[in-house]
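User: I'm writing a tutorial on reading structure tokens. Could you give me a worked example: one chain, its sequence, then its tokens, then a sentence or two explaining what the tokens reveal?
Assistant: Sure. Here is the example chain.
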Amino acid sequence: MRWVIAGGGTGGHLFPALALAEALAARGRAVLLLGCGRRVEALALAGVPFPVATISGEGFLGRGLWGKARSLVRLFWGVLQA
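And here are its predicted structure tokens:
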């Protein structure tokens, strides 16, 4: 069975996803971990025994008008990347 796990951006999303991915990989499952490419991900995921991919994304709430517009563009781009 193949698994795709999405979690990244902050440690609160990344580290539970990483723990799940490591547990599944240890049981012989094929795992792909998806993140958004932030620095914390690059540091935490260096040397993991399974593939890691990034998809564009950004938060929407708490942003100004231009930030929300940028967030929507990145969301659309992330859908195309997926």
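What the tokens reveal: The mean pLDDT is 88. Helices lie at 11-26, 39-44, 65-81.
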